[in-house]
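Input (structure):
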C-alpha cells in the first residue's frame, strides 16, 4: 500500500498515521523527522528502548483506538510495520 493510500471504511489515511508516528518518535527521541522512514527499525536505527516503544503503543491506542498486545508489539520492528498495523485495524 502506498504512503498516500487510505484504508478501511472510515478512510484512515496511512500517510497521516505515518506522520503521527514519525512526529512522536522525533519528539520523544530528539531526532530529525527526516531520518525516520518506513524501513527505520526502532531499536537498531533509533536506539529506542522498551519505554519509548511502550509510549508509542499507548499513543497509537489512544489516538486510533487500536489495542495492541505485548506479543503483537514485540513483532513490530519497523516504523512501517507499526503504521501498517494501525492502518489495517483502524477501520
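Output (sequence):
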Amino acid at each position: 500500500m502506498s504512503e498516500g493510500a487510505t484504508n478501511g471504511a472510515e478512510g484512515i489515511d496511512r500517510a497521516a498515521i505515518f506522520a503521527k508516528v514519525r512526529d512522536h518518535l522525533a519528539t520523544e527521541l530528539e531526532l530529525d523527522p527526516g531520518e525516520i522512514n518506513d524501513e527505520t527499525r526502532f531499536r537498531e536505527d533509533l536506539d529506542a528502548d522498551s519505554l519509548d516503544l511502550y509510549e508509542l503503543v499507548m499513543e497509537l491506542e489512544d489516538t486510533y483506538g487500536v489495542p495492541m498486545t505485548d506479543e503483537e508489539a514485540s513483532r513490530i520492528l519497523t516504523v512501517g510495520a507499526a503504521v501498517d498495523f494501525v492502518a489495517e485495524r483502524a477501520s
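Notes: Confidence is low (pLDDT under 50) at residues 1-10. The chain has one domain: 6-89.
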